[in-house]
């Protein structure tokens, strides 16, 4: 399975980089995982709603440019559906069973994902109603994808 994690902006924090590298390394036993960063737009304070929408669309076009037609897209969105870790494992397992080998998880930038990205997504996944920083979201996601593979393979992991 080829999993790409498409996100906005360069990751700056060393502790997040280390955590992501650790889980990506662990995940390499189960899947090819690729982290794709697209350029972010400057998001000054006090932007109007129109400016926010324009910014999202610009970043959204860059995200869509990284997604192939045959890719199954799971967008991370606060207002999306909440799944258990077991449900994520089941989804990935079913995608593999149906021959869907290209999966992209998409994480928005500081102002979120554009409507066009959300429309392209096959599923919208919420990790809770709380807002997480987009860079921390990458680490949470890779841990959950790793956990999903451990569940799928029936291998021991933390409870
Ligand atoms: C700082 S948040 C953007 C906040 C923005 N106000 C919004 O409503 O999307 C940046 C990105 O992180 C991801 N994210 C943050 N919290 C999340 C959550 N609880 N569940 C799923 N994704 C989340 C989403 O992809 C979001 O676009």
From TrEMBL:
Main enzyme class: transferase
Catalysis: reaction(s): pseudouridine(1915) in 23S rRNA + S-adenosyl-L-methionine = N(3)-methylpseudouridine(1915) in 23S rRNA + S-adenosyl-L-homocysteine + H(+)
Major subcellular location class: cytoplasm
Subcellular location as annotated: Cytoplasm
Residues the entry annotates as binding S-adenosyl-L-methionine: 76, 108, 127-132
EC number: 2.1.1.177
TM helices/strands, residue ranges: none
GO cellular component: cytoplasm
GO MF annotation: an example: rRNA (pseudouridine-N3-)-methyltransferase activity
Gene3D superfamilies (alphabetical): 3.40.1280.10
Domain of life of the native organism: Bacteria
Annotated Pfam families: SPOUT_MTase (PF02590)
Function: Specifically methylates the pseudouridine at position 1915 (m3Psi1915) in 23S rRNA.
PANTHER family, per the entry: METHYLTRANSFERASE, RIBOSOMAL RNA LARGE SUBUNIT METHYLTRANSFERASE H
Subunit structure: Homodimer.
Similarity comment: family membership: Belongs to the RNA methyltransferase RlmH family.
HAMAP family cross-referenced by the UniProt entry: 23SrRNA_methyltr_H
Record's protein name: Ribosomal RNA large subunit methyltransferase H
Provenance organism: Salipaludibacillus keqinensis
